[in-house]
Design goal:
- It is a single chain.
- This protein is mainly alpha-helical.
- Helices cover about 70% and strands about 5% of the residues.
- The protein has a domain of about 130 residues.
- The two termini are about 25 Å apart.
- The mean pLDDT is about 95.
């Protein structure tokens, strides 16, 4: 066992890891159930994902050190400096999210909120069901279909961001010589003297 493997730091707590992998599975289930026109499954998976996201928002304030949003809020200057350091081949090492990863996390969380909101509105104003049913008769057909299309557009944006997220994981793993996927499974990262 090398020195790097011998000293590990607990970074991702169990709730963060369960959230992450449940979100991966849930997003895939929601996407494919919609593609296969299994809308009952799609709606129930959507409800589960909303509950999951609400939990993560709470955990972002109440969770462990690296789960908290405040641990990965960076200024635009810090983010640009980090991106430049990636291009130079010597990015700073972070135990939690680095500035680029943090930007992706906030983008995906915001996008998921918008996907869920437009999905709930669509469910109410087109399918006449769900918790926002009170909106059903107060929205024009044009507005109803706008929400439906907005829901689809945002899912497509998420489908563009997910490969960028994976590219960042691969890039970070290679540049820091650590397996970030394994870290999201085990919660552990190798101790690095320069890491924050």
């Amino acid at each position: 066992m090398s020195d790097k493997e011998a000293v590990q730091v607990k970074v991702w707590d169990v709730p963060v890891r369960l959230f992450h992998w449940s979100l991966v599975a849930g997003f895939a289930a929601a996407y494919f159930s919609a593609e296969l026109h299994k809308m009952t499954v799609h709606v129930w998976v959507g409800y589960a994902l909303i509950a999951l996201l609400l939990f993560r928002l709470v955990w972002g304030f109440a969770g462990s050190q690296y789960a908290r949003f405040k641990s990965f809020i960076f200024s635009p200057q810090e983010t640009l400096a980090y991106v430049r350091s990636i291009r130079a081949g010597h990015p700073r090492h972070y135990y939690g999210h680095n500035p680029a990863g943090a930007l992706m996390v906030f983008a995906l969380l915001g996008l998921l909120l918008a996907i869920f909101a437009t999905g709930l509105v669509t469910l109410a104003v087109i399918d006449f069901e769900g918790p926002l049913l009170f909106m059903a008769n107060s929205v024009s057909d044009e507005t109803a279909y706008f929400f439906r299309h907005a829901h689809d557009w945002m899912v497509n944006i998420a489908l563009l961001l997910i490969p960028l997220h994976l590219l960042g994981v691969v890039s970070g793993s290679l540049q820091h010589k650590e397996n970030l996927v394994r870290a999201m499974v085990t919660g552990m990262k190798a101790k690095a003297p320069e890491a924050q």
